[in-house]
Design a protein that fits this description.
two-stranded parallel ribbon, mainly alpha, 36% helix
Length: 465
């Protein structure tokens, strides 16, 4: 073995002090033994110094990267990232295409306002992207530790935050036929290659409820003594808290399946490590910002806290706003559970304590803290105009006036059901005073409130409140 001097490395102050203290207290014999261990032989200045085992001409990785030949066809994004193409976009797609060349996408959302999160704060750009994207991503960010950010030359040296994302892939049935996805690569949103999967899923949906066993199960009654119910189709699950009976499992064991699910469904998640994606795109099952905003408008138009999911989806106010049902314009709300959850979340925002007595007291206290110009402006004068305008509009449209059975001989209208609003009822009583003819109706009342007893009813829901 050749003798050489070990290469030196910088030492910290505390380490250097400890080494010098050890050398000063050590004996000469111990030092000689340590020198022999290192195979170190003192050499005079006249002798030729042997070559270091580390090649002198070998450069560090940073030096090699700095002196690497420049590719004039690439554009620099960061100090270590280059691309061949740059694409500009003004809107967020629901599914991002996978280009075959390294591409930087410059997204300009300056003309749009970011949607708000549950706390009422604007979403970050990366959270906004994930909300609009129908794929599922596992995200790794630098968080708040990177205060300065990374300069991006493509954006004029603007400091940016780096976010790394990995596709979570799909959750597939354990009996999925691998031939349906074999060799599939999702380039530029090419859906022709996964058409066989879509067709197989459609066939499976048609065969399941029409099979002989499914028909017999639906028509038969429950075999448990005393159970009056009938069998229904439910989603199959492999989890059972009881002993599993293997009888009848020939229906699905060894059979090929076509079901694939979004990775946010179920307990298992699979990562898509392929580049590009090797799984088919998902349908629009996740409501984006536009869908949520439209649903919120339909919720308020349908009555706010009293609105039902069905009225939010297909109610007349929704048809007037969107021109079609909510689920027709935004397929994500075809999932009835998503629609119910959204309506429930809106109700909690409007009335955190519900619609019972505690909720009414809380709403009254909140109204009392508002400025005077924002208080409930239901006044007697306002409802006078409303009732007069309503009855005139009916008469001008139908060429017939609304006639009450109690006030007119030929009237068919028994009563009007209104909310439990005092000003509304008082204004209606004044209208009854105008149309009441004691010689015809036989009712002689001098107070509008007394006439309400003949043709006014309060909504039972509001009355209970």
């Amino acid at each position: 073995m050749a003798n050489f001097a070990p290469t030196s490395s910088p030492l910290s102050g505390s380490t250097r002090t400890a080494v010098l203290s050890t050398i000063q207290t050590a004996s000469s014999e111990l030092i000689q033994r340590y020198m022999a261990y290192l195979n170190y032989t003192p050499q005079s200045s006249e002798e030729e110094v042997p070559a270091s085992p580390t090649p002198v001409n070998r450069k560090s990785k940073r030096q090699r990267l700095a002196q690497a030949p420049k590719n004039t066809e690439t554009l620099k994004i960061t100090s270590r990232t280059t691309v061949k193409e740059v694409e500009h976009r003004l809107t967020l797609p629901s599914l991002w295409p996978i280009p075959k060349e390294s591409t930087a996408i410059v997204l300009d959302l300056s003309g749009q306002s970011a949607p708000l999160n549950a706390e009422g704060k604007p979403l970050t750009v990366d959270a906004w992207l994930r909300q609009e994207d129908q794929d599922s991503w596992k995200t790794c960010t630098t968080g708040n530790r990177s205060k300065e950010g990374i300069p991006v030359p493509l954006l004029g040296g603007t400091l940016c935050r780096r976010v790394l994302q990995k596709c979570n892939g799909i959750v597939a049935c354990s009996e999925l036929d691998p031939a349906l996805l074999e060799g599939y690569e999702r380039w530029e949103m090419d859906l022709e290659k996964c058409q066989s999967l879509f067709e197989a899923q459609e066939i499976q949906r048609q065969l399941e409820p029409s099979s002989a066993k499914a028909v017999v199960a639906k028509q038969g009654s429950c075999p448990k003594p005393g159970c009056p119910g009938s069998a229904t189709m439910v989603k199959f699950t492999l989890f059972s808290g009881q002993n599993i009976d293997l009888e009848g499992m020939e229906c699905f064991v060894g059979k090929r399946c076509t079901q694939v699910f979004h990775p946010t469904t179920g307990l298992k998640q699979k990562n898509c490590s392929a580049q590009p994606h090797n799984h088919p795109p998902f349908p629009a099952l996740k409501p984006n910002a536009e869908a949520k905003e439209a649903a919120a408008q339909c919720f308020l138009a349908a009555g706010g806290v009293t609105a039902k999911p069905s009225s939010v989806d297909t109610g007349p106010t929704t048809l007037a706003l969107l021109g079609q049902p909510l689920s027709g314009k935004f397929p994500a709300f075809r999932d009835k559970r998503k629609l119910r959850d959204f309506v429930q979340s809106q109700r909690l925002e409007e009335a955190p304590l519900g619609l019972e007595w505690l909720g009414i007291i809380n709403a009254a206290e909140e109204d009392g803290r508002l400025p005077a110009n924002e208080h409930d402006s239901n006044s007697l004068e306002a409802f006078r105009l409303i009732w007069d305008g309503f009855f005139r509009a009916v008469e001008s449209t139908t060429r017939h006036s609304l006639q009450f059975k109690v006030f007119h001989k030929n009237g068919n209208l028994c009563a009007i059901i209104c909310d439990a609003e005092a000003a509304q009822a008082q204004a209606l009583g004044e209208y009854f005073m105008k149309i009441n003819r004691p010689t015809v109706s036989g009712i002689e009342e001098a107070l509008p409130e007394r006439l309400l007893l003949y043709a006014f009813k309060s909504c039972l829901f509001h009355f209970n409140q």
